[in-house]
Amino acid sequence: MLAQINIDVDLRTMPLAQYWPEYDTRQSDMAMIGWHADTEDTANFFQYLSFCFDEETGAGQYNYGGYCNEEIDALVTEADSETDLEKRNEMLREAEAMLYEDVGYITLHWQNLAYAAADGVEIEPVVNALDFPYLGDLVINRSDD
Questions:
Q1: Is there a contact between 39 and 55 (Cβ–Cβ < 8 Å)?
Q2: How far is CA 86 from the centre of its chain?
Q3: Highest taxon of the source (predicted)?
């Protein structure tokens, strides 16, 4: 698709074990990464993907493009200690708007989730509002045809 807009691409695919060391040393002009905050907290996204890189603290560890806005970093850090949830949410929304205005990075690909089952297995929906599978409520009805 990038070639259609005159961007030459030399696509390299590799197993994860080889990918992460190259990702960490920024071996290419662009890279693919998926992200889901294990804490389900928006601040997690900023801390790892858009904070100014800081090797000592690990901030911005996966900020591949090297984007840095210290004002956003300070706002998100302040939000981390805010106990009023509405105020905290507003602070994070403000940080997101700033990141958007800066065009800190450009998302080129959004992975669609796919789920499948073997023939004869009917699976009740298990994906929650975050489009994240929760298998604790998985119900399998097997029909023996």
A1: no
A2: 23
A3: Bacteria
In the chain, the number of structural domains is: 2
SS3 assignment, position 75? helix
Q: Are strands 121-123 and 140-142 parallel, antiparallel or unpaired?
A: antiparallel
Reading phi first (left if > 0) and then psi (alpha if -120 to 50, else beta), residue 52 is in: beta
Residues 132 and 75 in one domain: no
In this structure, the answer to whether residues 95 and 53 fall within a common structural domain is yes
Give the C-alpha separation, 92 to 77, whole Å: 10
The total number of residues written for the chain in this structure? 145
Q: Is the pTM of this model over 0.70?
A: yes
Backbone angles phi, psi at 142, to 5 degrees: -100, 125
- The boundaries of the domain holding residue 124 are 115-145
Do 96 and 119 share a domain, yes or no?
no
